[in-house]
Structures are given as structure tokens and as C-alpha cells.
Amino acid sequence: VPLFTETYKALLLDTLKVPSPDCYLRPEGVSWEDHSRTMFAAMEQTLAEHHASIAAVIVEPLIQGAGGMRMYHPVYLKLLREACDRYEVHLIHDEIAVGFGRTGTMFACEQAGIRPDFLCLSKALTGGYLPLAACLTTDEVYGAFYDDYSTLRAFLHSHSYTGNPLACAAALATLDIFEQDNVIEANKALSQRMASASAHLVDHPHVAEVRQTGMALAIEMVQDKASKTAYPWQERRGMKVFEHALTRGALLRPLGSVVYFLPPYVITPEQIDFLAEVASEGIDIATRDSVSVAVPANFHPDFRDPG
Ligand SMILES: *Cc1c(COP(=O)(O)O)cnc(C)c1O
């Protein structure tokens, strides 16, 4: 999302970007798997051309969050792992959003049957109660920094609250709950409930797609359903859904015109039904009228309005 990086461009490392395997954009009649496989060609080509100067490939596995809750098939991650091995390039999974069960497995990489070289974790590590992040890596990478003191090869990056005991206690308690309550298994029924409660929205004249990966479900509102023509971002349709939801006591936080559910796992089936009902009402309201808008001059076109 350029909005988040443009200001800091001069400070950041140069990166190569490849087209997303985002299955919302797949041609009609093509499966998620086939589309994700096809889209991998661009990644393969980039690695083939530039692998000698690439330090690592970083991906958000299965769900691209801030980009609009766009989703793709695990086959892409499998092909990427194979290619990274072939070209000797490290693979980084940013599972900050999807780690700890969001996609239906404890980690998204499990669905591809692979291991990244680096696994970035945070958010649900503490159940969201305290801030904690962790970056896991392989013994091989760890070993590269492990040396005699006199060589000064240690990995000297930390900060004041590294290993904060309270946050770690919250994380351990959260991991205990995952183990004792069999959360991943229990979530299967909840994610099915999310699907059935939202299924009717597929037929809405201004919904282009209802997509789901485990405990994440997203509804894409569009101006024209047949051509998937997006609403002009200036119309802030998502904010109308947000405003309606507030009047009903629900907190929905659309990304642009994408309404989504990313509920905590303590949600009940009845609460899921309620959320789907509120979202349906909000989508009806948000898509009913034409909207007149005044565009602030400094508004960035890539900004996905969270409301
Ligand atoms: C929230 C999020 C981040 C940001 O993590 P911080 O620890 O707040 O910097 C990075 N990547 C993904 C996928 C996220 O969802």
C-alpha cells in the first residue's frame, strides 16, 4: 500500500514487487488454485532474473489484510517455497494477522505443508490483551549469528521491552487456552456459521464476492456487479456500513468498500448471525443511493478508508 511507504521511500530498502495472486481478480470460471498457480509465474520470473541480489521474499500468507482482505490458494506458498529453495533465497512469512488460527490452521503455512525461514508473529499471540511480537527463524540463521564473543557477530537488535514478562505471561496463558480448549477445532463450526450467515449476500446486486478463509470473511461491495466495477473511493461507502453498525451496537471496520468479519474466537453463533444481519442492513444502506462527495485535496487515492 503506497500510502504507508511513500513518505519513507528514501529511507527504505529497494524492493521488487510482483503481482498478487489475489483470487478476487481471477477470470470467471477459474478456480482459486488455478489462478494462484498462474499468478506464480511472475514470482518465478522475478526470482529467476534477480535471485542473486534478493535477500528474501516476504509474503502475507493466504490473506492480504490491509490490501483489502484479498485471499489466495495455498498452492502459491508451496510453489514459492520450492522456488526459494531452488534459488537459495530466504522466505519470510508475515503471519502477524493470520497466525494463531485465523485461516483455519494454527499457522497459514501449514496449509501449504511448508516452513518459512522466518515467521513473524504478533497480534493473537497474546489474544490481543498485551503487545508482544516474535520473529522465529531456523537454527541455520540463528547459527550464522552465534560465534565467539570476540568476533562481535551477535544479532544486536532489541529494544527496551523485549521479553516483557507480563506480555509473555499473557502469551503463555493464550497458548494454554489454544491447547486446552481445542480452539482450532471449535473454530470450524464458527467459520461454517460465518459462511451460512453471510451466504445470502452473494445475491446482493452490489456485492461482487463473499470470500472466506477460516475465521476471516470479506464482502466486496461494488458499483457494478457484472464488471466488478469498484465504487469511487471518494464515496466512502464502507463508512456508511460502519456508521450503521454503530447504531446497532456492532463494530465493523470496512477497508474501503470491503466489509469483513475477523471476530475473536469467543464469539457465539448467535453473535455471528447478528453481525451478518447488521452487515446486510449496512450494505443495503450504503449501496442504495448515489452519493455526492467533496474530495479533500490532500486525500491519497490509495487510502482505504477504515471509517
Ligand atoms: C498488524 C500487522 C503488521 C504490523 O505489526 P506491528 O507489530 O504493529 O508493526 C504487520 N503485518 C501484518 C500482516 C499485520 O496484520
Descriptive key words:
alpha/beta, Aspartate Aminotransferase, domain 2, Aspartate Aminotransferase, domain 1, four-stranded mixed sheet, three-stranded antiparallel sheet, 9 strands, binds pyridoxal-5'-phosphate
Please characterize this protein's 3D structure.
A 4-stranded mixed β-sheet has the order 1-4-5-6. A 3-stranded antiparallel β-sheet has the order 7-8-9. Strands 2-3 form a two-stranded antiparallel ribbon. It contains 8 helices and 9 strands. Strand 2 (63-64) and strand 3 (70-71) form a beta hairpin. It folds into 2 domains: 2-180, Type I PLP-dependent aspartate aminotransferase-like (Major domain) (Aspartate Aminotransferase, domain 2, 3-Layer(aba) Sandwich); 183-288, Alpha-Beta Complex (Aspartate Aminotransferase, domain 1). Helix 6 (183-198) packs parallel to helix 8 (269-288). With 307 residues, it is of the alpha/beta class. The model has no long low-confidence stretch (mean pLDDT 93). The protein has helices spanning 2-5, 32-50, 75-87, 139-145, 165-180, 183-198, 237-247, 269-288; strands at 56-59, 63-64, 70-71, 90-94, 118-121, 134-137, 207-213, 216-221, 258-261. Pyridoxal-5'-phosphate is lined by residues 60, 65, 94, 96-97, 122-123, 133.
